[in-house]
Amino acid sequence: MRFDEAYSGKVFIMSRASEEEADAVIYGMPMDWTVSFRPGSRFGPNRIREASIGLEEYSPYLDRHLEEVSYHDAGDLLLPFGNAARSLDIIEDYMDELMEKGKFPLGMGGEHLVSWPVIQSVYKKYPALAVIHIDAHADLREEYEGEVLSHSTPIRKTCELIGAENVYSFGIRSGMREEFQYAAESGMHLYKFDVLEPLQKVLPELGGRPVYVTIDIDVLDPAAAPGTGTAEAGGITSKELLAAIHAMAGSEMNIVGADLVEVAPAYDHSEKTQIAASKLMREMLLGFVQ
């Protein structure tokens, strides 16, 4: 059994019944085995689905309706609790299948380490891949307290896989001194604090390239998204993050996949984090999937 049957009845709004007929596939990666502060992001995908029921199907930003995009919510992958290595293998195997079928993958985490096997798989198909990373944290550590499989390492691993010069990080406001030194010396593109303005400046140089987009919800200020494992003061607004998604959607990049990670619902009884996340998912569906 690949998907968790407990969530089989809960799908993102207007999900189509058949994966084979869909252009895009939504899937959950409910893993939080390596978090360094607060667990609970494994419950994020399902709560984002539940919050999506309150969405309008129409986006006034993009003048598109969800009925114009053919997508299927496959549910949450069944991942072995506490076994990070095996969980990552399961995610990569599933992603390899989606890549072979030509589907657009739109994942929901889970901790940010779940993006690593997805990027590995996408890179196999698109060797000229660039990655846009929007986050509060640099995620450039080689290990965390001796553990190389950590939610603080996926972007460092990505730099080493595809070349640091092909990685673009935005909104970063937290990390070790050594992480920022690595960014400066490696040739990667790291922009501190802000997202929209630096993103708009680099989009032209990414025109025509295959790009994978990974967004950590904690790039938002905790006032807008308190429901996350490692909240960090001083973040951007949901309005700016929506504008960044729309800027990418309107660019000449070939966006080949995306994910939204680190929603941890237990820390937000108001549900505004998952409400924001569901809207961000809608805008990515409408903006990234043609």
From TrEMBL:
An annotated Gene Ontology molecular function: agmatinase activity
Keywords: Hydrolase, Metal-binding
EC number: 3.5.3.11
Keyword NAD: no
Signal sequence, start to end: none
Pfam families: Arginase (PF00491)
InterPro entries (alphabetical): Agmatinase-rel, Ureohydrolase, Ureohydrolase_dom_sf, Ureohydrolase_Mn_BS
Protein family per UniProt: Belongs to the arginase family. Agmatinase subfamily.
Protein name: Agmatinase
Organism: Halobacillus kuroshimensis
